[in-house]
Amino acid sequence: MSVPLVRKVVRQDLEPTIGEIALMECFRHMTNHCIRIGLEFERENGVTPSMRKLSRLSYTHLKSYQCYAQYRLCAISRAAGILSSRKKSIKRGFATRSPFVSKRMIVSCYGFDIQDGHLVIHLGSRTSESIALNSHTLEVISNPLLRVCSFTLTEKSLCLCISKEVPKPNLSEVTGPIGVDRNLRNVTVGNEEAVTYYDVSKVSRIAENTRRIIASFKRDDRRVRQRLISKYGNRRQERIERILHLVSRDVVERAKAKRQVIVFEEIKGIRKLYRKGNLQVKSYRAQMNSWPFYEVKRQIEYKAAWEGVPTITLSRRETEGTTMDCPQCGERLQVPVRRDRRHYRQLWCERCERWRDRDLIAVLNISRRGWLRFDHSSKEGGAREAMRGNPGHEGEPVILRVDASKSRDVFTRDRTLC
């Protein structure tokens, strides 16, 4: 059996021709036309139109646009997605404006082919144009197991959506869990056998430096200031995603090699703790709100799906007390009134009479509870042990430190737990 097609995107820079720009502009106008029709229907009936309803309402109006006929269906699909996102925002209580597509682009799953290292697309019903693909794109799509599903053309880039069928993972072959604890300055991954600390403190420094640079802008022209802010914001996002890419790739590779299931904890809604008016200073709120915890999970999940590695997300009830319960004896850990720098981010266990690193505690508890969930939900392989190893052993898992901003082979060393 196979799971539904797993998809990801390969991107390359592009300078479009005049004909491609005209096609993107036509697609933008068609999308906006469909959006206006959908908003008018919503005002009259009080209901956001579905994809099928929007197609019936707008397809005849799009015949006036001179373009490849299949692009009309893609414009309707994009407009339906924009209206659906607006509906979700309204339900969540966010103030929304009338949506409008301002950038030239085209998204289509029709009317394209790959021939002799070029992407051939239709400009009209009888005209076409070819776009040269670079070596990286050709190397990726040369895999016979991959299939190109669609393309996205913008004024700066070309993106190809590729997919493949991933065999359904055999749950009876899973050897154990690997927990993922996301923190502001590190990502801790591991189980009772080994724990790895990925240092991502550079992400916080990048975000802080970007905020400081943007705050120094004193431009009177708002448009110029917005362009500069957008420039530095995109630069910040690209640098952070590059660092997290190294972390997520390493986590998935290790889980695949050891045939483990990746376990996350649910921390959705944590942004509410750092809103204005919570008696917190502005710099602290800015630091916590720039914490890319969701991006870490997103990258690991899509790479795990691409490699066929199972993932589990525990509920809040299942992860309650993961940082405060001793993984060895189950005793509630204590936060000392006074502690020196040697025991920073550590908690004291009265029964074991020793200090415990809170990140290590969290990842051990997450991995064990994830294994409990996996053991109960698995229908193959019969009964298994809920935890691997003896929770009362005196030995500690192997602790590794990795600088996420560098290659994993450059800065990796063992560390003894104090």
Structure explained in plain terms:
The protein has two domains: 6-164, no CATH class; 171-415, no CATH class. Helix 1 packs across helix 3 (70-91) and helix 2 (51-58) packs across helix 3. It has nine helices and 16 strands. The chain has helices at 18-45, 51-58, 70-91, 135-141, 201-215, 222-258, 282-289, 293-307, 358-377; strands at residues 6-13, 105-108, 112-115, 118-122, 128-132, 147-154, 157-164, 176-182, 186-190, 194-199, 260-265, 311-314, 346-349, 354-357, 398-403, 412-415. A hairpin with a 4-residue loop joins strand 13 (346-349) and strand 14. The chain has 418 residues and is of the alpha+beta class. The chain is globular and about 80 Å long. The longest helix is centred in the middle third of the chain and has 37 residues, at 222-258. The two termini are 48 Å apart. The strands form four sheets. It has a seven-stranded mixed β-sheet, with helices on both faces. A four-stranded antiparallel β-sheet has the order 1-7-6-2. A three-stranded antiparallel β-sheet has the order 3-4-5, with no helix packed on it. Mean pLDDT is 83; it is low at 379-393 and 407-418.
